[in-house]
Amino acid sequence: MAEYGIHHATSSGSNPSIFEVIGQENLVSALRSAFRHVFKILAENNPEKFGLLHKYFDEGYTVVDSVFQFIHLRLKGGLFPETFYGLKRIPDPRNPNVSKQKVMTWVFFAVVFPYVQSQMERLYKDIREEHSQGSFNYKDFKRRLALLYLKFYPLYNFMWEMVVLSYYVAFALKKTSFHSPLMHLTSSTLTHLTAFDLSDDAWKEYIPENQQKKLITTLWNCMNIFVGGVTLTISVGAFITQFIHWWYNRQSGVTSFAPLPIPPPPQKWSTDNGIDVCPLCKKKRTNDTALSSSGFVFCYPCIFHFVQDNQKCPVTGYKSSLNQLVKLYHSDEF
Predict the structure, then answer these.
(1) Using CB atoms within 10 A of its CB, is residue 116 exposed (0-12), middle (13-18) or buried (19+)?
(2) 76 vs 157 pLDDT, higher one
(3) Cα separation of 194 and 176, whole Å?
(4) CA gap 310, 321 in Å, rounded
């Protein structure tokens, strides 16, 4: 349904715009986030059945998406996000002269490589969190590797983002036909789908005559119907999601004049406690962290776990969230 949208009303064989390129790449992360949210809800409501699927969502999604994108390349001439925006790859992966190794390389850079990058980012966040909490229990060589990774990953991420940005700028200025370093690495470019490519039977023209057996043709026809069903489902699902999002914002945007509930009075704070004592553990603070909803300062591990479990300030009772934790740094730490 979406492939017949107005954004495809361009001449066949023309190069895509930078907006189409960025749009199809953003669709990849949007789909992954949407499916992750669905599995999160399923796991919260039925942890026995869906808890394991949610825990290993990234790995399972990567495997399923790799198979789906491989089939989509062979049937439609491009990855799903690309054909969704009316684009296909050159050379056309449906052509029998394009090897399976070439198609698998495209799938690796489109699906597996982003997964590896996401795992690198997750590892960096975990190590940084442990280091900031003072629970950095790595020893000897492993500790040195972890500390090196804390310094290496931000530099790598910065350099990668700058390379991607430079390719976007060069592509927008028509200085290169490659919109990303990965496309340049595989010597692949994008072009618009033609009217023939949009027909339901376009894939049949690419089956070699020696392979046009009834069983093989039926199998590919079933996969083509499946791919079309997925496209239609995502198109309708995206519309419904946007409608629900608009409706929810419309309902929540109604101004309420009811007064906010008055929180209970703060607990009495003993003057015998020193200014560097944590109100929770009653010991000298470590990793000083202020709770912006009340202004009190705690140890980071103490206040993090308390707010995570109770969603309020332990001293005042004011409603609080983890986003209101503010790390404090002293001049001697720099």
Answers:
(1) exposed
(2) 157
(3) 22
(4) 9
First to last CA, the chain: 57
Per-residue pLDDT of 17-27, as tens digits, reads: 999 998 888 88
- Residue 9's pLDDT is what? 40
**Residue 186 burial class via C-beta count within 10 angstroms: exposed 0-12, middle 13-18, buried 19 and up:** middle
Phi/psi at 292 (5° precision): -65, -20
pTM: 0.63
Taking only the tens place, the pLDDT of each residue in 163-204 is: 999 999 999 999 999 999 999 999 889 998 887 777 766 666
Q: What is the largest CA-CA distance in the chain?
A: 90
Rg (CA), the chain: 27
Neighbour-count burial of 6, counting CB atoms closer than 10 A to its CB (0-12 exposed, 13-18 middle, 19+ buried) = exposed
Which region holds residue 306: left if phi is over 0, alpha if psi is between -120 and 50, else beta? Answer: alpha
Which region holds residue 317: left if phi is over 0, alpha if psi is between -120 and 50, else beta? Answer: left
| Contact indicator for 94, 206 with CB cutoff of 8 Å | yes
Cα–Cα distance, 8 to 84 (Å, whole number): 10
190: number of Cβ within 10 Å: 23
